[in-house]
What we know:
It is a single chain. By secondary structure, the protein is mainly beta. It has one domain (2-109). Helices cover 11% and strands 47% of the residues. It is built from one helix and eight strands. The protein has one helix at residues 34-46, and strands at residues 2-7, 19-23, 26-32, 49-54, 63-75, 80-92, 104-107, 116-117. Strands 1, 2, 3, 4, 5, 6, 7 and 8 form an eight-stranded mixed beta sheet that branches. The longest helix has 13 residues, at 34-46.
Amino acid sequence: MAGFVVVHHRRDGDQPWSNNWGDDDRLQMITTTAEIAARCEQAHRTGERIYVHRCGLDARPPLICCSVEVESASYDAMAGCVSFSAFEFVGLPPSRKPARGENWYEADPPTSHRKAPFRR
Length: 120
């Protein structure tokens, strides 16, 4: 099973958490719950990649836009901050629809993505 972080599209005006995007498909940093930051910290320790489930917006459908490595994760009892690196483009529709307010889930990783690193 792989971890999927669920985030709003960067152009969505309703952002419950602050995120930093390099572009529409490359999530660089999130503020999040302490629980998710702790899960990301665990992924960092074990070298697991995290998949980014970007919610849809207007005509843009939801997308597993990339997979990332956790560069750093810090948190306290209330919230956390996670930075990502080593982005790989995925570009596939998600296999499930998260419930409203759900910002993390575990599922089988996509098997047919291109694993193409982003070009700068």
